[in-house]
Amino acid sequence: MSSDRIEKQIELKAPVSRVWRALTDYQEFGEWFRVKLDGPFEPGKVSTGHITYPGYEHVQWNSVVQKIEPERLFSFTWRPYAIDPSVDYSAETPTLVEFTLEPAPNGALLRLTESGFNNVPSSRREEAFRMNDGGWTEQMKNIEQHIAQTPLLV
Fold first, then answer.
1. DSSP string covering 50-116
2. Is the pLDDT of residue 92 over 70?
3. Hey, where are the domains in the chain?
4. What is residue 2's predicted lDDT score, i.e. its pLDDT?
5. CA nearest neighbour of 43 among 80, 78, 74, 79
6. What residues does the Activator of Hsp90 ATPase homologue 1/2-like C-terminal domain cover (predicted)?
7. Has residue 1 got a pLDDT over 80?
8. Percent of the chain at pLDDT above 70?
9. Number of H helices, E strands in the chain
10. pLDDT > 80? residue 120
11. Spatial separation of the C-alpha atoms in residues 31 and 106, rounded to whole Å
Protein backbone atom coordinates (compact mmCIF):
# COMPACT_ATOMS: atom_id res chain seq x y z
CA MET A 1 0.00 0.00 0.00
CA SER A 2 1.36 3.40 -0.95
CA SER A 3 0.79 6.73 0.76
CA ASP A 4 -1.14 7.85 -2.35
CA ARG A 5 -3.94 5.32 -1.93
CA ILE A 6 -6.18 3.93 0.79
CA GLU A 7 -7.69 0.51 0.15
CA LYS A 8 -10.27 -1.30 2.28
CA GLN A 9 -12.54 -4.23 1.64
CA ILE A 10 -15.25 -6.09 3.48
CA GLU A 11 -17.50 -9.00 2.70
CA LEU A 12 -21.06 -8.11 3.60
CA LYS A 13 -23.76 -10.67 4.31
CA ALA A 14 -26.26 -9.18 1.91
CA PRO A 15 -26.97 -9.36 -1.81
CA VAL A 16 -25.11 -6.96 -4.09
CA SER A 17 -28.43 -5.18 -4.77
CA ARG A 18 -28.88 -4.43 -1.04
CA VAL A 19 -25.36 -3.06 -0.65
CA TRP A 20 -25.80 -1.03 -3.84
CA ARG A 21 -28.83 0.73 -2.35
CA ALA A 22 -26.88 1.51 0.82
CA LEU A 23 -24.13 3.08 -1.30
CA THR A 24 -26.13 5.04 -3.86
CA ASP A 25 -29.43 6.04 -2.28
CA TYR A 26 -28.43 9.42 -0.90
CA GLN A 27 -30.64 9.17 2.20
CA GLU A 28 -29.48 5.69 3.06
CA PHE A 29 -25.85 6.62 2.37
CA GLY A 30 -26.35 9.48 4.80
CA GLU A 31 -27.57 7.17 7.55
CA TRP A 32 -24.46 5.02 7.72
CA PHE A 33 -21.94 7.64 6.56
CA ARG A 34 -23.40 10.22 8.94
CA VAL A 35 -24.04 12.99 6.46
CA LYS A 36 -27.23 14.89 5.60
CA LEU A 37 -27.17 15.23 1.82
CA ASP A 38 -29.22 17.83 -0.05
CA GLY A 39 -30.29 15.53 -2.88
CA PRO A 40 -29.69 12.36 -4.90
CA PHE A 41 -26.36 11.35 -6.39
CA GLU A 42 -26.13 12.09 -10.13
CA PRO A 43 -23.06 11.52 -12.33
CA GLY A 44 -21.29 14.78 -13.17
CA LYS A 45 -23.20 16.70 -10.50
CA VAL A 46 -22.05 18.25 -7.25
CA SER A 47 -23.36 16.60 -4.09
CA THR A 48 -23.69 18.90 -1.09
CA GLY A 49 -24.76 18.58 2.51
CA HIS A 50 -23.24 18.54 5.96
CA ILE A 51 -21.62 15.96 8.18
CA THR A 52 -23.71 14.78 11.14
CA TYR A 53 -20.95 12.81 12.90
CA PRO A 54 -20.53 14.19 16.46
CA GLY A 55 -17.76 16.76 16.59
CA TYR A 56 -17.79 17.30 12.82
CA GLU A 57 -21.23 18.90 12.39
CA HIS A 58 -19.54 22.11 11.16
CA VAL A 59 -18.06 20.28 8.14
CA GLN A 60 -19.74 20.74 4.78
CA TRP A 61 -20.06 17.77 2.42
CA ASN A 62 -18.99 18.70 -1.08
CA SER A 63 -18.22 16.05 -3.68
CA VAL A 64 -18.64 15.53 -7.40
CA VAL A 65 -20.19 12.23 -8.47
CA GLN A 66 -18.02 10.68 -11.16
CA LYS A 67 -19.60 7.34 -12.06
CA ILE A 68 -22.62 5.27 -11.18
CA GLU A 69 -22.45 1.86 -12.88
CA PRO A 70 -25.39 -0.06 -11.34
CA GLU A 71 -24.43 -2.70 -8.81
CA ARG A 72 -20.75 -2.42 -9.78
CA LEU A 73 -19.12 1.01 -9.32
CA PHE A 74 -19.94 4.24 -7.50
CA SER A 75 -17.31 6.96 -7.43
CA PHE A 76 -16.90 10.59 -6.46
CA THR A 77 -14.17 13.14 -5.94
CA TRP A 78 -13.75 15.27 -2.83
CA ARG A 79 -11.14 17.09 -0.83
CA PRO A 80 -9.99 14.78 1.98
CA TYR A 81 -10.16 15.90 5.58
CA ALA A 82 -11.20 19.42 4.57
CA ILE A 83 -12.62 20.24 8.00
CA ASP A 84 -11.46 23.77 8.84
CA PRO A 85 -14.27 26.19 7.94
CA SER A 86 -11.78 29.08 7.78
CA VAL A 87 -9.76 27.42 4.97
CA ASP A 88 -10.69 27.59 1.29
CA TYR A 89 -9.87 24.15 -0.11
CA SER A 90 -11.37 24.82 -3.55
CA ALA A 91 -8.01 25.19 -5.32
CA GLU A 92 -6.85 21.75 -4.16
CA THR A 93 -6.98 18.75 -6.48
CA PRO A 94 -9.56 16.34 -5.06
CA THR A 95 -9.00 12.67 -4.36
CA LEU A 96 -11.04 9.95 -6.07
CA VAL A 97 -13.22 7.67 -3.93
CA GLU A 98 -14.34 4.45 -5.60
CA PHE A 99 -16.69 1.81 -4.23
CA THR A 100 -16.75 -1.41 -6.23
CA LEU A 101 -19.06 -4.35 -5.66
CA GLU A 102 -18.98 -7.95 -6.72
CA PRO A 103 -20.79 -11.10 -5.63
CA ALA A 104 -19.09 -13.10 -2.88
CA PRO A 105 -19.82 -16.55 -1.44
CA ASN A 106 -21.85 -15.14 1.47
CA GLY A 107 -23.14 -11.92 -0.09
CA ALA A 108 -21.22 -9.03 -1.58
CA LEU A 109 -17.60 -7.96 -1.57
CA LEU A 110 -17.29 -4.20 -1.15
CA ARG A 111 -13.98 -2.59 -2.03
CA LEU A 112 -13.15 1.02 -1.24
CA THR A 113 -10.24 2.90 -2.78
CA GLU A 114 -9.37 6.53 -2.23
CA SER A 115 -6.51 7.68 -4.44
CA GLY A 116 -4.71 10.89 -5.28
CA PHE A 117 -3.21 11.84 -1.92
CA ASN A 118 0.04 12.79 -3.65
CA ASN A 119 -1.86 15.81 -4.99
CA VAL A 120 -2.96 17.00 -1.54
CA PRO A 121 -0.80 19.93 -0.40
CA SER A 122 2.23 18.63 1.47
CA SER A 123 1.35 20.74 4.52
CA ARG A 124 -1.72 18.56 5.18
CA ARG A 125 -1.15 15.39 3.14
CA GLU A 126 0.02 13.13 5.97
CA GLU A 127 -2.80 14.13 8.32
CA ALA A 128 -5.45 13.87 5.57
CA PHE A 129 -4.21 10.38 4.69
CA ARG A 130 -4.08 9.24 8.32
CA MET A 131 -7.51 10.63 9.18
CA ASN A 132 -9.18 9.25 6.06
CA ASP A 133 -7.52 5.86 6.50
CA GLY A 134 -9.00 5.64 9.99
CA GLY A 135 -12.27 7.13 8.80
CA TRP A 136 -12.70 4.53 6.07
CA THR A 137 -12.03 1.75 8.57
CA GLU A 138 -14.93 3.12 10.63
CA GLN A 139 -17.16 3.62 7.58
CA MET A 140 -16.72 -0.01 6.55
CA LYS A 141 -17.93 -1.02 10.02
CA ASN A 142 -20.77 1.49 9.72
CA ILE A 143 -22.07 0.11 6.42
CA GLU A 144 -21.77 -3.46 7.73
CA GLN A 145 -23.79 -2.58 10.84
CA HIS A 146 -26.32 -0.58 8.82
CA ILE A 147 -26.98 -3.45 6.43
CA ALA A 148 -27.21 -5.96 9.27
CA GLN A 149 -29.79 -3.76 11.04
CA THR A 150 -31.83 -2.99 7.90
CA PRO A 151 -31.50 -6.08 5.68
CA LEU A 152 -34.83 -5.67 3.91
CA LEU A 153 -34.87 -1.91 3.53
CA VAL A 154 -36.41 -0.93 0.21
1. EE-STT-TTPEEEEEEEEEETTTEEEEEE-TT---TTS--TTSPPEEEEEEEEEETTEEEEEEEEE-
2. yes
3. 5-149
4. 59
5. 74
6. 13-147
7. no
8. 97
9. 3, 7
10. yes
11. 24
